[in-house]
Amino acid sequence: MKTRQTNGTAETSKTYTKKDLVIKIAEETGLPQLAAGELVQQVLDGICAALADGYRVEFRDFGVFRRIKRKPRIGRNPKNPAGEVKIPSCETIRFKPGRIMRCICGKEK
Question: Among 12, 26, 68, 92, whose CB has the most other CB atoms within 10 angstroms?
């Protein structure tokens, strides 16, 4: 796990990388790290391919990935608030955490 400083302040954010996940999977399953890395990459590639094909990707109790289309809107340049900037419509990915993830992360409703 990596810890990095944000905005030069004393606050730090923890980053859990793909490498960290591969190492953990390799240790827990006894797989070589290379095989665990290929497995993780295949899962990520599968999620990306499904989203690219327009599918909603759902893992029960973990969460749901889906593509959404954002409407065009008018924004403001913070350096010149008087000027309006047209922001075109675009597609993006949204993730909605599932019940178990919300419980684990302490954000259960």
Answer: 26
For residue 30, the cross-strand partners are: none
Structural domain containing residue 22 = 2-104
Query: Which string of DSSP letters, residue by residue, matches 5-33?
Result: ESTTSS-EEEE--HHHHHHHHHHHH---H
CB–CB of 63/98 below 8 Å? yes
SS3 61: coil
pLDDT of 6 above 90: no
Q: pLDDT tens-digit profile of 18-76?
A: 999 999 999 999 999 999 999 999 999 999 999 999 999 999 989 999 999 999 999 98
Residue 77 lies in a domain: yes
Task: Tell me if 17 is assigned to some domain.
Answer: yes
